Amino acid sequence: MDRRSFMSLSATSLAGFAAQWATTDPGCLAAALDRRTRVDAQLVDRLEGTSRQLNTLPTEKRQHAIRLMDAQLATVTDLIAHASYTEPLGRRLHLLAASLSTTCGWHRFDQGRHYAAGKLWTGALHAATAAGDRDFGAGILSDFGYRSLWTGQPKTAVDHLGHALSGTRHPTARSLLHLRRARAFAALGDRQATLTDLADAEHALDAAAGTTAPAWCAWMSPADLEVDSGQALLDLGDIRKAQARIADGLALLPPARDKTRGVFLASQARGALDAQEIEHAAHLAGQSLDIASRIGAERCITQVRELTRRFAEHQEIEGVDRILDRLRAA
């Protein structure tokens, strides 16, 4: 392991991994893979515990743990393919594989490796289907929709998200899916469909209060609703309303979600450019770049870099030269 990666993990996280390592018998794992013994609940408990710790690391630390996640995924998929287990334990292994594949896919997506992300998400969808978790499958379909939106294919995103909405009933999940579809409709210029989905997203999130959301969308919050609504309104040309909602969302975002903060700041910079607030836009773009560079989020860097041409139109304004130099070097 690279020394910098090792040092980036907190003492608490390392203690947790050490405990998992100490209590996991390699012989037990090897015996299960060789079919000399069946997979037991204790082994699956340990695998789930380690995966949970990896998935709950803050964004800044999770980037250094991706090799651990890849290794964990390889172990789980090897067990699924080669070991012997009961049907209930098989469902748990498939759900664990789906969760790890989703997380590993998002890491590739953040690095701009869209094909690799798609392969992992396809595996995740198969695993969730094998486990009989239609709700989780809807979440994975929505990730495909998000990728389509990000890569400039909003019509495909609308289709994916429509299918996803047909497969989940939990209000938090439906709020997220309506919100993402609103973004896609806004990119297509369909104002009425955008506003309808934004209203549905808000209503569903209100209805979710006091319920336990599925793990794949448990992070969905009022902050996400505000900022993504603002991004949709930006695409519709409602600049002032969009700016207000994005600012409100940033204020609500918890500190641990740095990657999301970087994306949100880039959206806020775009809104400031639309409002001809050039100095403020340069400041926001710089903040987004700082976060994206620190956590290694190439996707966020690319998002800010796409503003280069617009900043270049205002080189006479203070601060623009500095941000252009940074964008060209990024």
Notes on the protein architecture:
With 330 residues, this protein is mostly helical. The protein has a domain at 1-132. It is 77% helix and 0% strand. The protein has 19 helices and no strands. It has helices at 3-8, 11-23, 26-33, 41-55, 59-62, 66-82, 87-110, 114-130, 134-150, 154-165, 171-188, 191-207, 222-236, 239-252, 258-274, 278-295, 298-305, 308-312, 320-329. Residues 1-24 have low confidence and may be disordered.
Mean pLDDT: 85
Radius of gyration from the CA trace?
21 Å
Structural class: mainly alpha
- State the end-to-end distance: 26 Å
Order of helices and strands: HHHHHHHHHHHHHHHHHHH
- Number of E-type strands: 0
Helical fraction: over 70%
Q: Enumerate how many helices there are, as a single number.
A: 19
Shape: globular
The profile of the biggest β sheet is:
none
Strand content: under 5%
List keywords for this structure.
77% helix; 0% strand; globular; 330 residues; single chain; mainly alpha; disordered N terminus; 19 helices
Write the layout of secondary structure elements.
Blueprint: H1 3-8, H2 11-23, H3 26-33, H4 41-55, H5 59-62, H6 66-82, H7 87-110, H8 114-130, H9 134-150, H10 154-165, H11 171-188, H12 191-207, H13 222-236, H14 239-252, H15 258-274, H16 278-295, H17 298-305, H18 308-312, H19 320-329
In short:
The chain has 330 residues and is mainly alpha-helical. It has a domain at 1-132. The chain has 19 helices and no strands.
